[in-house]
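Model it.
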Amino acid sequence: MATITVRIDDETRDALQAKADEERQTLSDYVRDRLHDAVFTFRKHEEVKKSGGLEPRSMSALDRHTLALLHRILARVMPEDANDVDGDTAYQLERAKVLEHGYTSEYWIEFAGLRPELTARHSEFVKDVLDMFRIALYSFKDLREQGVEIDESLERAMTFEGFDHNDLLEGQLADYVTFLVEDGKWEEQKEVVLGSDRGNSHHQTLEVYSRMLTEYREVKQNPARKSGGTKSYLLNEEELRKIAAARVHPSRRGSQKLPTSREW
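Modeled.
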């Protein structure tokens, strides 16, 4: 067995010793176990997959007591024939028992279905993407009213496709888009997110949209743009083409034609 040496201050060493005493372990065994925890996953893959791995390894007595009381309250108020996602009376009493007895390996059931938080940055990213495609939609409408013939490939390139449901993060972004649309926001995307594909792009789009957003922001901040007027927020054909061209990664650019869906 290999040996490593780590220098720590006395305060940290005393805190580790106190934790080891609580676990009734030697300091060496306690530190070794914590290192293992940091590197390896001992729980079954199926259990981690069920909960997303968000369950705590330990809970405070107050949290356990509170959750156990909630389960006991549910057990009393549930109808006798209850058989929905909350289970029945016996199930609720079982959950209370798990918490009261501190069966940490069973805590994952409390957190089953709970997903990682969608960060504020990713939430704002989704809104910015939807705004960009909304402005593109309005811009195409205005150009047509001016008699401009719109290239079909350009319009397709500037149409929101959704996010990839097979990717963990993009799947969560797709769910957020659906939530926003169903809440009455960006309703022009109803056909995309509520249609047969349910907002599934079937290929990863996050990086593509990020490049397009960068170009979109640069276009909007260009001092040469005309300011003022009720339609100053709209994009002209040249600006739309610049944003659409950002779909292709810089390393693969070189052709002036718009990318096909396979190249995005």
